[in-house]
Amino acid sequence: MSRPDIATLAVGDVIGSRTVTFDRAALVRYAGASGDLNPIHWNDKFAVDAGLPGVIAHGMLTMGSVVGLVVDWAGDPGAVVDYQTRFTKPVEVPNPGTAQVDVVGTVGVVDADAGTVRVDLVVTVDGAKVLGRTQVLVRL
Amino acid sequence: MANADFEGRSYPANAPYSVGREKIREFAVAVGATHPAHHDLVAARGSGYPDLVAPPTFAVVVAQRAESQYISDPEAQIDFTRVVHADERFTHHRPIVAGDELTTVLHVDRVVVRGAISMVTTRCEIYAMPQHVEVPSPEAEGPGEHVATVVSTLAIRGEDA
Question: SS3 for A25?
Fold first, then answer.
């Protein structure tokens, strides 16, 4: 897999975009894989009783999924040295149906001396941000 | 509301988590991570890794186990039915790979109570334990090679929030 050349990158460059889709099965699969069995991610009654509109995706599922854009661009999952986000809005997942999470990655900082690039992700559902200050530091 | 007395607490290194190949594959499928280094041993080794590489947020599996020492302590007064995740940060000192035996030192960095909302910030320092040493050296800086730092903030809504 070819890797980006840091010398050709500039702040503001768009590295790519994609849409990630979650259905209820995806939430159950992530619950099992991660060990996060909080019922707000699979039990409608529990979610409503907790004050939510319905079942929501694990914030960590959204965080873990959208970074794939950066990993595939960098060509190496070990290149991600720092990754942070804020969970600003829950992602509702209907039943039946899917939630469509859109992600766009833009170069935020280029540090040629350190050999690192910070990619900033904008993550939205129906145009509304669901994650805030999502920054991925990549060593190229 | 969360018990502010817990701010500043640290916990001893916990029981090790063994990172398995199938767990890495299972987690990678769950987050849609298709890079061959998560799934194919030949590809991972071809990329210079000793074994399958964990996805960037895999450390949450390890961190959650350590955090439960604090979160599920009744004296911490964290009502898990009223918790939402506020933020998360992973710093990788090196990638986690299959075969790692990881132990975690948990720190409660911040407990802030503002009205009906409590915010608690935990920090997990994750170490790979030496593979062939029975007894760690007493001079060692930590329980092993420092692999990752995971900082997580939870917001807990009070009964009237």
Answer: helix
Q: How many domains does chain A have?
A: 1
Residue A56: inside a domain, yes or no? yes
- Within 8 A of B22 by CB-CB distance, chain A residues are none
Nearest CB partner across the interface for B64, out of A36, A51, A67: A36
Among the partner residues B29, B86, B90, nearest to A82 by beta-carbon distance: B90
Confidence check on the interface: ipTM exceeds 0.85, yes or no: yes
| Closest-CA residue of chain B to A47 | B81
Residues 83-102 of B with CB under 8 A from A: 84-92, 94-95
In a domain, A1, yes or no: no
Q: What residues of A are in contact with residue B94 (Cβ under 8 Å)? A: 78
Among the partner-chain residues A20, A83, A87, the one whose CB lies closest to the CB of B85 is A87
Residues 6+ away with beta carbon under 8 Å from B140: none
**Domain span holding position A35:** 6-139
Q: What is the pLDDT along chain A (140 residues), one digit of tens a residue?
A: 578 999 999 999 999 999 999 999 999 999 999 999 999 999 999 999 988 999 999 999 999 999 999 999 999 999 999 999 999 999 999 999 999 999 999 999 999 999 999 999 999 999 999 999 999 999 99
pLDDT, mean of residues B69-86? 92
CATH of residue A83's domain is 3.10.129.10
Is B123 an interface residue toward A (CB < 8 Å)? no
